[in-house]
Amino acid sequence: MTKKIKVAVVQRSGAGSAKDNLSAMASLVESCVKDCRDLDVVVFPEYCYYAPTTMDESQKVAEEIPGFFTDSMAALAKKHHVNIIPGTFIEKAASGKVHNTSVFIDRKGEILATYRKVHLMDAIGYKESDYVERGNALCVFDSDVGRVGMMVCYDLRFPEMARSMVLQGADVLFVPAEFPSGNPLPPRTDHWDILVRSTALYNLTYVVAANQFGALHKDNPFGRSCVVDPWGTTVAAASGRQDIVYATLDMEYQREIRDKVATWVNRRPEVYAL
To answer: 50 with 30: CB under 8 angstroms?
Structure first.
């Protein structure tokens, strides 16, 4: 495991065409590696490539793995020698629906892991399962920066998911998201902040969360992308605009926090079921 991991969290909107978004993502990766020497990981928000609104639209833009989008991101990763989590994109599913999918592409341009969103947003006026097929597996894997766990947006509301991944050895959790501003309920900015920070704190694990920002259909995601350390402290946070924030994850500090707080030692799994 790398002792220190340098991450770049890109905050932008997925509004507009896939072609324009892909071009913007390529430019942003270039900016990230230029501005941060020895950068390890670039992470984008959910649906950063393209954000469909209907079943028909989703099926039209759905891609396979490997496919045009993943090949394009792989070329960028290899060119700039950086790991990339390119948010999520629409992947074809055998059921006739689609998957909301994220991948981890390593510095060699290889797809190291694939995560299909497990918890779909069938709540608060949304019905994601109308066109998205649920994934059925967690995503925890080894990389050159350590053992990584990936989740997406609504997954944050299920604490057992993050806990399960950390129990499987995850050193850091990456969370691409498209967390909206509130319609039809009051703004959920506080929910976002609390969910990200609490996930880091109760698991004593770094959480890197990239949220969209800007006008996007009716959602208008509010940004507030951030990196939270295992003490629950926000160590980097994006402003209310398109932004890139950088942070260094100190794995030795994480080990010290885990040793001192000792929740992993004092757990009583024989008393409760996860």
So the answer is: no
Expressed as residue numbers, the domain containing 106 is 4-265
pLDDT digits (tens, 9 = 90+) for 210-220: 999 876 666 67
Q: What is the pLDDT of residues 62-74, one digit of tens each?
A: 999 999 999 999 9
pTM over 0.85: yes
Rounded CA separation 141/148 (Å): 5
Domain count, the chain: 1
Asked if residues 42 and 10 have their Cβ atoms less than 8 Å apart, the reply is yes
Q: 274 in a domain, yes or no? A: no
Q: Is residue 270 a part of any domain in this protein?
A: no
First to last CA, the chain: 27
Residues 98-155: tens digit of each pLDDT: 999 999 999 999 999 999 999 999 988 788 999 999 999 999 999 999 999 999 999 9
The token duo for 77 is 């990763």
Between the alpha carbon of residue 20 and those of residues 24, 26, 62, 258, the distances in Å are: 6, 10, 17, 43
CATH number, domain containing residue 175: 3.60.110.10
The pLDDT of residue 274 is: 58
